[in-house]
């Protein structure tokens, strides 16, 4: 009972004094009184067992170092390393760490010298104080004045030294600031010089163009009712239309320039600075082309809509690959429904109603990961699937020409060589790239990678050069005549590389699940440019390029278009979420749909893109 009352009293007291807090136990100090990690810069010399400076450093087979006494005592109770739990069978399996012992000896000597110096300074001050106390009664006024004069002189000297040190430090700081600002001013002067040069060049070009087109004034003609109405009407209509078009296109392009001004400015300065030692017009022309192409298109116009899945209730209709044939007349669509559907582009565009039927349909045994058309044979199409099978089809008869089944795991990618049109490459989760010929029943050779191969792509102008993207976060570039070592390894991505596409014979772009695209030159291991804006953390979202523009999907169910000369997106197109009966109440932000495949119709501004619901959009940049 007494115990219960005591408990109640204790709780009452606690409730009555809410502001009282328990005093924290002070942290133990280590290393001669250094109690925080900011001051302690030698924690490598601490024993993980006793938390003191290591005595007689000995190392375990796993590489960790302890005091000899600490580790031998610890192994008597447990035969595992205190740091990593590595099993140490015998106490004799610990070895002296001579190098660390030497470093610790030097460190201890340094600490001792520092302590001795501190003690010496304190002893001098203490002796002076003791002397003054002992002789205080024997000092007369003259002695006191003499001592005060000495101390005053010492004070003045210390103050002067302190002021000199302060002035010297301030001088050094201001010199560094001036140097930094001078460098900035020099850089600005250089930039202003080539800006003035380029501006003069543009003004000269504008003057010459104006002189050439004097007969085509953009000023609307006045309607004065005179006898020249027929001629004025004819010219007025022509010039007025031209004037209106010029104003509209300039207004639209100005908006895009202002929207991306910082990125454009950086692109211009980089291009011009890089070419200062070469022709003055080279960098300027490069940026002129970038600016023109960056501002050329303002939106994306849907031309047609198709559906990959025939069953509207089917929730797994992801389109994994879209490809045009060599003449851009037909395009094939493949995905997880195990079907390859071939459509005629002209028919799809001309149909008034968005109900489109394929000219042919092929059914595979497994989910399809990738397809590739032959650049020579009109109807020859290759596919790879989740079972590791590579199949060669006649796309117009639906017949299998060849079936290759040598991959041991899922095959992610397949690609026809554009120079040697019989050659095919495939990449798989078995960390192998296999080369095939349409005239042979087995693989020609196999290239061993160190990690899962997510994508393969031939150089468009070479029969021997191949790029592959891997789960090791790198792009590897090989000469197939010597596969022992890659010609180049391009590092920079933070996650697996899911796609690789060539912009031209020397430049390629890679996509990764780190939400970045990166552009590379095959002769330079450094990244030329990173493209950011889309979201891609876990899915294959597609990648395509026409040589200047790069299209990719995003996990926010949108298509993103980049221009190779700038890091930010030029255009985006958002897919609508198609709901079935079971998901009619689901909010748009709750959906996990993503754009899963992208393809460019070469020689045009048309892109075909599809999302994870099986919706395919034929889009045109305008």
TrEMBL record:
Native source organism of the sequence: Ornithodoros erraticus (European soft tick)
Record-annotated RING-type domain positions: 47-85
Extent of the WD repeats: 404-446, 490-530
Localization terms from the record: Nucleus
The keyword NAD is annotated on this UniProt entry: no
Region (Disordered) location: 1-35, 205-241
Record-level GO BP terms: proteasome-mediated ubiquitin-dependent protein catabolic process
Keyword match Transcription regulation: no
Protein name from the UniProt record: Ring finger and WD repeat domain 2
Coiled-coil region: 148-198
SMART domains named in the record: RING, WD40
InterPro entries for this protein: COP1, WD40/YVTN_repeat-like_dom_sf, WD40_PAC1, WD40_repeat_CS, WD40_repeat_dom_sf, WD40_rpt, Znf_RING, Znf_RING/FYVE/PHD
Major subcellular location class: nucleus
